[in-house]
Structures are given as structure tokens and as C-alpha cells.
Amino acid sequence: MNDRAALDLLVSQGPLTRTQIGELTGLSKPTASQLLARLEAAGLVRSTGNVTGRPGPNAQLYEVNPVAAHVAALAVTPVGITAAVADITGQVLGEDRVDTGAATSEAIAEDVPNRTAQLVAQAVDGALAKAGLRREQLHRAVIGTPGALDPQTGELRYAPHLPGWRSRALRAELAEALGTPIVIENDVNLAAVAEQHDGAAQDFDDFVLVWADEGVGAAIVLGGQLLRGATGGAGEIGYMPLPGAPLARDGERSAARPDAGGGFQRLVGSPSVVELAREYGAPEVRTVDEALRDDDVRAEVARRLATGLAAVVAVVDPRLVVLSGEVAQAGGEPLRALVEQELTGLALPRPELRLSHIGGNPILIGALRTALAETRDAVFDTA
């Protein structure tokens, strides 16, 4: 327990002296010295210079040894796989992307699972090469994908637009391809992990993240824990039936049109927002950012978002709702304020409504956070 407390302090606060570790953990100087010697011998801690500019002997600084372990994080979309490799301190050492849209489509008639594993390995190998590392130096990989693995069958559900990811042996195939343990997690759940650690949901144990992008989904965090559901489908609000949208049916989504079919996604997904702007008389609009510059389009999208949020809030009663994804980012504060206004006066709980302010790819950041947490639990276990 003392070892883990010291390691966690070194991760969160950076280099510390023996005296500082003793003060922060409540350990005596001799015990802190023994602890550091033990961790240094195990390759988990290393000395990193001295504190200077103070009276008396210079105190030695210690830090977590960054080469103690390495992890990979991946974010998967229908058109590409982005991979990042980091050391155990969280420092990203290399990142790479593989475009997969055409390759995945061609693979449908071939050996899809094998092709998927090859593409994942290609993305990871590219990131490893930039980091100057090899596959055998990886301790774990976390992959964020649309949909979710069914805990009963091992099959990726709710993601028919990822045809190469439907194998029931997917996790084993990917683990074999990379030679390291694999975790496959819903992409929006990982965005919520990033938001809880680095974004708008810090210090919140009960919140919902609503992801409005090319696809639409939600992550539900209650008591600090992600709610996954019996089949892994908790938060798949893109399929939620709402007035003004046709019912979503099996097999109606595709890589070309993830918003096809029905449900909430048909109302607020990125392609639908662009389509709405064209219906409002702007046929030249090509992007969500362009579409949401129009006041009428922004007001209608806010009304649609509020309708879906009202259903979620009525059931979950979170303290906070975070709006994330391309639609939320393009709409910004004006869209958030309109959604809040639409929710005002409803006979429902009134959670705080915030925009995500995660910089970079929140799915990749969440995958990295998850990989680091699980790897530290294993590597820092000195019992």
C-alpha cells in the first residue's frame, strides 16, 4: 500500500524528494528511504537529479521510471484507425493513423476479421516506429470503437457500419495480432473517461456525456462508474425513437450513411444537420460548422437536442450533462445556451449543461487514460 501510494504521488505530482514523499504519505524518513530503494531496485523508480538553490545538502529527486511499461490507445471510425503509444507516465511517444474506409469495404467479401487485425496492427506498428519501440514492449492496448462488445457473446453490437469488426473472436484475434492484452471499449464511454479526468466533468460522479457527431451516443456515469447495460448497449441513444424521426431498424446503417435509418441520430447527427441547412435554403452548405452559422438551423438543432436530452434526464437524473462531438463543438456556446433554454420550464430535473473542452481526440485520450490505469494497477503491484 505504501509503495502504491508513493508511485501514485510520483505520477500525479512529478519528481519528489524522499522528504516530500515522506511528508505526503505520512511515512518516516527511514521507511521512505527503504521504499524508494525497493522501487528503484524493481525498476519502477529512478533518480532524476537534485533540488538546488536551497541551504544544506542537495536533496535527490525521484520519478516514475518511464520505461517501466508502455501502452497503446486506439480510436476507430468507419474510415480510419488512429493509434498512440505512451510510456507509463502518460507521455505520448508516437502517433499514427491508417485510413481504412476503402480497405474495410473491399474486405467484406474476403477474410474480414483477419483484415481488421492487420489494419489495427499497422496503425500500432506505425505509432511504435515513431516512438522507437517494438511490439514486445507493449503491456496493454485499449481500443475505442462505435458500438459495444456484448459480454455474453463477445460480438460487437450496435455498429453495423463497421463490418470488419463483427467477429465473435474479435478480441482474441486482435490480441494475437498485437501480442498484448486487448480491451475494446465503446468510443463515447472513453470520451466520458477523458472528460472526467481532464475536461468538463472533473469532480462529478454522476453525469451524462452526449456525443453528437456523425454518429450519436451517450455515456452514463453513475457513482463514478460507467453504466454499460446487460448487452453493452447502455447509452446507445442514437437508436432512441423520438417524434419527427423514423424508427431505427436493424441493418439500416452503413459506412456510407451512419445516420441512415431512424431515431435520435437521424435528428442531430452531423449529416442530418447539414441536410437540415439545405432544407432551410442553403444548398451550398457542406459542413456542420457552416450549417450552424444559420440562426434558424441552430435553433432547430437545439430543439432536437433538448428533446433527446429530456428523455435521458428523465430516466437518469444526472448532476451534469456534457455536450461533445462535432455538432456541439461547431455550435459552441450559442447552441448550448439554446439547448438550456429549451429545457427550461420542463417538469424534469435540471442538470448543469456544459460543453466539452477536451483538446485533441477525446476518444483517444480516454483510451490512453484507461490503458494507463489498468497497466499501472498491474505494474505497480509490488506485493
Automatic annotation (TrEMBL):
InterPro entries: ArsR-like_HTH, ATPase_NBD, HTH_MarR-typ, ROK, WH-like_DNA-bd_sf, WH_DNA-bd_sf. Belongs to the ROK (NagC/XylR) family. Residues 6-50 form the HTH marR-type domain. It comes from the Bacteria. The lineage of its organism: Bacteria, Bacillati, Actinomycetota, Actinomycetes, Kitasatosporales. One of its GO terms (molecular function) is DNA-binding transcription factor activity. This is ROK family transcriptional regulator. Pfam families: MarR_2, ROK. It comes from Streptomyces kasugaensis.
